[in-house]
Backbone:
């Protein structure tokens, strides 16, 4: 891996197809697995992007995202023959994914990849996300739940006044929660990944 690639690259970009209001960031981790685990998310992940990259993730976060945007990224990954061992989808603040959308996401990954779904928290309360839990029950080896909603409960100080977006302590807690999954599912160093 080149020094340029290995460096944490904050590249604030505007999507050509997105409204001008919707800023995003794409970061590479300092080091770790190659290809690194990938976190795809909305404005909540955007607020913790540097902390999550510091845990070893490639981070692709943008304001105003819905599950259809994550599906487009998964299609690009498959087309480009990129197969991160772990893909975290942290989308649901604007609207939790549907059963159909999550089934499509799973079909866009292969059996050696783990799909992890972050439960959404908005306005100081968890958002119901039954489709994610149902997918996990149907595919417990391939689909993991990162229960941010349960983890965030009782921690009002982690959030700005909207009860959704992350203050620095919340960003650190969010990143640590995502980082804990790297050990749970067996993401390793450059040698790669072994399915649990």
Residues:
């Amino acid at each position: 891996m080149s020094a340029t690639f290995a460096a944490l690259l904050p590249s604030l970009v505007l999507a050509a197809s997105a409204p001008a209001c919707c800023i995003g960031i794409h970061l590479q981790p300092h080091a770790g697995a190659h290809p690194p685990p990938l976190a795809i998310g909305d404005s909540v992940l955007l607020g913790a992007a540097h902390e999550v990259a510091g845990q070893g993730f490639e981070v692709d976060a943008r304001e105003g995202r819905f599950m259809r945007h994550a599906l487009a990224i998964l299609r690009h990954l498959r087309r480009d023959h990129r197969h991160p061992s772990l893909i975290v989808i942290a989308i649901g603040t604007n609207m939790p994914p549907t059963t159909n959308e999550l089934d499509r996401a799973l079909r866009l990954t292969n059996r050696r990849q783990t799909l992890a779904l972050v439960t959404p928290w908005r306005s100081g309360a968890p958002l119901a996300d039954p489709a994610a839990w149902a997918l996990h029950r149907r595919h417990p080896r391939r689909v993991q739940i990162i229960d941010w909603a349960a983890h965030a409960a009782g921690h009002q100080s982690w959030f700005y006044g909207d009860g959704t977006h992350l203050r620095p302590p919340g960003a650190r807690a969010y990143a640590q929660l995502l980082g804990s999954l790297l050990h749970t599912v067996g993401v390793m160093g450059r040698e790669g990944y072994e399915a649990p």
In short: Helices lie at 3-6, 43-46, 49-54, 67-79, 99-107, 130-138, 148-152, 168-185.
